[in-house]
Design a protein that fits this description.
3 strands; 23% strand
Length: 114
């Protein structure tokens, strides 16, 4: 079964928390550690780490690529974090804002974001 965006977001968030506790914990002082931990979670929760784009994959067609990344890109950086997933978008219709305005109210009720 394919997992949805929310499942992957929580998995990425938990992986970021685990990385903080296992690798990026330079403080021995509990107060400093708690402050750094709260800052790290806020960095994830406010969407600064998240990038979303549409990509085309020859095997799966159009996909939604969601990536959570922090800090530098080189491997030896201890605070670097990367989690990426491509979610296939089969059967999803895309509408321009003007076309959405022209849809009838009964049709809008069928749309997932309402």
């Amino acid at each position: 079964m394919t997992q949805d965006y929310g499942w992957h977001r929580e998995k990425a968030r938990q992986a970021w928390i685990d990385k903080f506790h296992n690798e990026h914990n330079p403080y021995d002082n509990e107060a400093d550690m708690q402050e750094e931990y709260e800052y790290m979670l806020a960095h994830f929760d406010d969407g600064e780490m998240e990038q979303v784009k549409f990509v085309f994959n020859h095997k799966h067609g159009t996909c939604l690529k969601v990536k959570w990344e922090s800090s530098a890109w080189w491997d030896y950086d201890r605070v670097h974090f990367y989690y990426c997933v491509m979610l296939p978008m089969r059967g999803i219709g895309m509408l321009e804002p003007a076309a959405l305005d022209r849809t009838k109210p009964k049709q809008r009720k069928l749309m997932w974001w309402n």
